[in-house]
Amino acid sequence: MKPELGTCYYPEHWSQDMWQRDAERMIEVGISWVRIGEFAWSRIEPQEGKLEWEWLDKAVQTLGEVGLKIVMGTPSATPPIWMVKKYPDMLAVGKDGHVKQFGSRRHYCFSHFEYRREAVRMATLMGERYGHNTHVAAWQIDNEYGCHNTTLSYSPHAQMGFQDWLAQKYQSPQALNRAWGNVFWSMEVSSFDEIGLPNLTVCEPNPIHELEFFRYTSDQVVAFNLAQVKALRTLTDRPLIHNYMGRILDFDHYKVGDDLDIASWDSYPLGFLEDRSEKDEAFKHTYSTKGDPDFQAFHHDLYRSVGKGRWWVMEQQPGPVNWAPYNPAPAEGMVKLWTLEAIAHGAEVVSYFRWRQAHFAQEQMHSGLLRVDDKAAPALHEAEEVHKILTDLDTNEQQQSDVAIIFDYESAWAWHIQRQGKDFDYFNLIYDFYCGLRKLGQSIDILPPNTENFGDRKLVLIPALFAWNNEIKTAMKNFNGTLLIGPRSGSKTKDFAIPSKLPPEIDYMDITVERVETLRPSSTVGLKNYNGTLMRWFEHITTLNEVVIETTAGAPALIKKGKTYYLAGWPDEMAMQNVLKLLLEGENLSIQKLKGGLRLRESKHHKFWIDYDTCQVKIEPKEKP
Ligand code: GAL
């Protein structure tokens, strides 16, 4: 499939006499996809049951007739005011107990069944009208589940739904009490309706209580999405997509993705660097106009996995945004680079958010491809350049990477609930391994935790997987390559308890984690004969297996049995490079030590060098297989 460009357009924001020219200009730039509709409920149905399709029909026709392919969004992220008046209890409730009010977006609670029914009703109406429209070539369901911290809702509906979900899972309150260890602080219940939500408690709730609430809520997101999927499937044969948002972890994206045809995500490299990265000030300064060289790639690889190979960037940052603490303008050429980088990782479509900057409302400070006065913003020219480059690139077939990392949403919830040390953040740990591999020139696959087979990969990393599951145990047993496990992997049961035989419970290794400690930023654990240290987290291990790296105090740091390694702590950058090099060399994988912001991505027939700095690269063409 030849990669294509798109843009996000809001016909309802502009007078109808602008649509034709906008559509033609999109084509002139080289754009072939246009996403519309995802926030337009108040215009489609201004009052309950009063449907106004004419404007949307005309928009579809105008855009479609110039040759644009339309992604139609279902508008369930923006229920209009009449809906909220009809169901005042559909509003989500924050952890602090405050009801989220109407006046922006994503104000609904995933557990509110009447609202779910309304969203399905709207998806059905749209499907009936546009499901077979020749111009509508794909659908987006809702918009960015979880954005603005909207996954978990502590509403009365969530409480009832949670109690019901627990009753189905545990069958009896006694079984739940046992599994949760509720005897601990006299937290035992004698019926499911005595179980509250894990917020507003005096100190921390039982960790399994919180984890189960994450699991329950994630299931509601999956069900909310699936309800619209089911409605649309009967009305259209076009692919169904959702646009996920960067570093949103509080529902299981793989499970939502299982019901869809294509995964997409919204890539705002500069916004993310300022808003979602814990990198230090010097790093942020260096990359403030370019973005973190690994952050986009990580999500590209993640969503390639969520979409089982099919994925897009639904929204690409085109210039300064409005929502981060600082909103610099991208350095010249970066919009082009971000687009090509996504394509290097296998994106089928990269779509710019948004076509024209709005001069009104919340996002008036957010740039578009066009300025408010209709003149081209710098990104428009960069999009045109990308289009020219794409005419010479036929397809960019992906291949399985030799190296993979397991990324698990439940582990993110578990270690959010029980960090044990302030700095223990699951995303950051996985990301450190990912960046370490990229700095050694690797292309990486990200795999879900229930992967049954690692295939003929050479190296698989399983850091901090909180509990084992049968599928991954099978994959580990049958794997011929090198495995790196730990720290903290297998350290809990599914019920969030310490396994009675002590972690990590890898039956073919002789390892016992006898004690764990978390470390202040100023105290780290040195390694004997290796540069670098372990930081943040350290496990005191006894083992009969080979100790490959010892701490300066003589304790096991990296342990090996056959081709399985176990790591006792969180490596700093230097230790990370040393450990990863050792593993990659053991598998004879080629290593390229990359400097600064230079990265490499290999697909089946191409090598892409992506330079977030200005490094000098001598390019050797990839040999055709
Ligand atoms: C995304 C969202 C868009 C727009 C954009 C601004 O999170 O999906 O609707 O708000 O951010 O950067």
Outline the structure in words:
The chain has 625 residues and is of the alpha/beta class. Helices cover 33% and strands 17% of the residues. It has helices spanning 19-29, 41-44, 54-65, 81-86, 113-130, 156-170, 173-180, 207-233, 253-258, 269-275, 281-287, 295-306, 334-344, 378-392, 409-417, 426-439, 470-478, 573-586; strands at residues 4-8, 31-36, 69-73, 136-140, 240-245, 262-267, 311-316, 349-352, 403-406, 444-447, 459-462, 482-485, 511-518, 525-526, 533-543, 546-550, 556-561, 564-567, 569-571, 598-602, 607-611. An 8-stranded parallel β-barrel has the order 1-2-3-4-5-6-7-8, surrounded by 5 helices. The chain has a 7-stranded mixed sheet with strand order 10-9-11-12-18-17-16. Strand 5, helix 9 and strand 6 (262-267) form a beta-alpha-beta unit. It is globular, with a radius of gyration of 25 Å. Beta-D-galactopyranose binds next to loops.
Features of this protein?
single chain; 17% strand; globular; alpha/beta; 33% helix; binds beta-D-galactopyranose; seven-stranded mixed beta sheet; 625 residues
